[in-house]
Each structure stands twice: as C-alpha cells, then as structure tokens.
Inverse folding.
C-alpha cells in the first residue's frame, strides 16, 4: 500500500476531478484489504463457494466505497471500506442459492430425524442419539451441523416454492416490526462517528480491528504490541465510554 501522504494527495485529487484513472489507482491501493476480508469470510463458507467469487463481490464493495467516501467527515477509509466490502460480499451470497444439492439433502434428512426423535422421546434428542439414528461418526455429525448452520445464508428474493421461480418472494412475507426511522438511524450513525473520533488512537484501533476487521484480542495484541489482557481492558473501557457518551447524547437524538 502506498504511503499515507501519497494516498491523501491521490484522494484529494480524485474527489476534486472524479478522474477514473485516479479511482482505479485508489482501488488498486486498497485491494490487499479486500483480499484480507474476503479470506476471513471465505474461511467460514462451504468449499463450494470459491474465494474468487467472494473476492469479486468484495471488489464491487470497494468500488462503491471509493466513490461514496467523504473526506470531510474525518473517518478512516479502511473503517468505512470494511463495512461496504463485507456488505457487498454478504449481499452476493444472499443473492444466490449457493448450497449444493447434497448439502440440502443432508440438511433435510437431519431435520426429519430431529423431528421424529423428538416425537418419539418427548424431548429434544441429544447429539449421540441423533448420530446413532443417522449412523454418523462425531466428525461427520460436526460437519453436518456446520452445513446446516451455513444454510442460514439465503436469498430473500427466492420463492418459497422452488418449482415456481415467479412466485412470491420470501421478502414479501417478512414484517419489519422495528419500524426504523432512516433519519434517526442517520443521526445515530453521525453521533457514533463523532464519539469515535474523540477516542485516543489506540482505543480507536482496538475497536476497528475487533469489530471491523474481525481480529481476536490475541491478534490485536500482536498487531499493537500489547498483551491480550491489556487489549481486553482497553476494549471494555472504550466500549463503556462510547455507550455512556451515546446515552448522554440520547435525549437530543431520541435514541
């Protein structure tokens, strides 16, 4: 990645001119961040989902982030970009039915076995009972559970009837009981950004690495040359400060 001074100059010139070549240079400069995030997400996906697919969706998010980034807000681009890249990747995963037929068949058999055993026993079956019924080894059972959990990523635009692609989508039957007010959400985000900007550099780094880059406390300690316990302490104190400050501002923002 280029030096910060060079990047800053590149950013200022791009925002002034909207030159496509400058945009491409910025995208290239931040590709390592996309590679890192795509790799972290791909680790938790089935092998049938290729890293290249995840990375391509991440690059789309990076392009959007470069176009939409506002220099005047004083937020680090890496923080803003991480959210957009993650969101783009998840949107792409949800837009397709990526699970292979074998995985879905095994998940269906698992659901049937779970239902039948619960009816027979009058209680929720234990893992050993499920393994015995399905004739699975502990390793096979663990893999099955992981596959079932990963099937939670699905397309809201997909019809509930697989034979009727033009049928009503699942999203039409989802009710948003929270009634989120977009303007209120924007105010909350702006307040959060303001509060985070008031943090010390090390405090902000811990939050960014933990919440936006997905590092563990131990990994953060290695990055910042701190002990894991010290990172945990900084994290706890910082989160408390942020929450208290947001509560203090809550009366004006109707949080």
């Amino acid at each position: 990645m280029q030096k910060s001074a060079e990047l800053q100059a590149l950013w200022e010139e791009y925002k002034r001119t909207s030159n496509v070549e400058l945009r491409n240079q910025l995208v290239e400069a931040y590709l390592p961040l996309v590679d890192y995030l795509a790799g972290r997400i791909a680790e938790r996906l089935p092998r049938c989902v290729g890293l290249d697919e995840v990375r391509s969706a991440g690059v789309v998010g990076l392009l959007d982030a470069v176009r939409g980034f506002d220099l005047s807000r004083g937020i680090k681009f890496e923080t803003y970009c991480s959210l957009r890249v993650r969101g783009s990747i998840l949107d792409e995963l949800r837009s397709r039915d990526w699970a292979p037929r074998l995985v879905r068949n095994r998940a269906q058999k698992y659901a049937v076995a779970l239902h039948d055993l619960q009816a027979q026993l009058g209680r929720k079956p234990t893992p050993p009972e499920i393994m015995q019924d399905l004739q699975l080894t502990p390793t096979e059972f663990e893999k099955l559970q992981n596959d079932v959990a990963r099937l939670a990523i699905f397309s809201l635009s997909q019809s509930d009837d697989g034979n009727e692609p033009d049928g009503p989508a699942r999203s039409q039957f989802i009710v948003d009981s929270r009634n989120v007010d977009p303007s209120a959400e924007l105010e909350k985000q702006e307040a959060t950004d303001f509060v985070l900007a008031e943090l010390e550099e090390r405090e902000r780094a811990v939050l960014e690495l933990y919440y936006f880059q997905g590092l563990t406390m131990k990994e953060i300690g290695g990055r910042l040359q701190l002990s894991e316990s010290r990172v945990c302490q900084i994290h706890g104190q910082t989160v408390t400060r942020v929450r208290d400050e947001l509560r203090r501002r809550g009366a004006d923002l109707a949080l």
The CA atoms of residues 147 and 196 lie 37 Å apart. Confidence is low (pLDDT under 50) at residues 153-187, 251-255. The chain is about 70% helix and 0% strand.
